[in-house]
Amino acid sequence: NVEFYRVHSRHEIEVRYWERGVGPTFSSGTGSCAAAAAAILGGQAESPVTVKTVAGDLQVRWEKDGIYLTGPAEIVCRGEFLCGREHSSAPAATQTGAMRKAPYSEGASASGAAGPSKNNLVNCSSR
Fold first, then answer.
1. Of the candidates 24, 29, 45, 76, which lies 20 to 30 Å from 120 by C-alpha distance?
2. pTM for the full predicted model
3. Element (H, E) at 39
4. Consecutive H or E run containing 17
């Protein structure tokens, strides 16, 4: 993935995102943090930084113990996927349980970025 940013002030940057396999996206949480960190490390900005995206503004602050992102989150679509032995590349010995449909939200990160959320993993083990 690639982020392009433009500095507006010491506390505000504008960012555009290009994600491999997708193309341009409206926003990206990790991309916003990376762009803010690059601007700070490059001496172009200082924490906290407002990151202006197509989807809206995010706030990134860099503290001693880490980088923090604050912004709105919303679900942008819903769907479902099949989970089971027939739909996995994992070895059969590690597969348990029958194939089943599982609810899945392809939603937004805290930044409003569309895409699969890693927080929606489904356990396909028998219960």
1. 24
2. 0.62
3. helix 29-41
4. strand 12-19
Cα→Cα distances 78→5, 15, 24, 54, 121, Å: 30, 27, 21, 21, 14
- DSSP for 66-126, written as a single string: EEEEE--------EEEEESGGG--S-GGG--S--EEEEE---B-TT--BS--GGG----S-
Amino acid identity for residue 123 in this structure = N
Q: Rounded CA gap, 126 and 122, in Å? A: 12
Give the DSSP H/E element, type plus range, for residue 30.
helix 29-41
Collapsed DSSP state (helix, strand, coil) of residue 33: helix
**Residue 60 has what DSSP assignment?**
E
pLDDT in tens, 66-110: 999 999 888 878 888 777 666 556 554 444 444 433 343 333 434
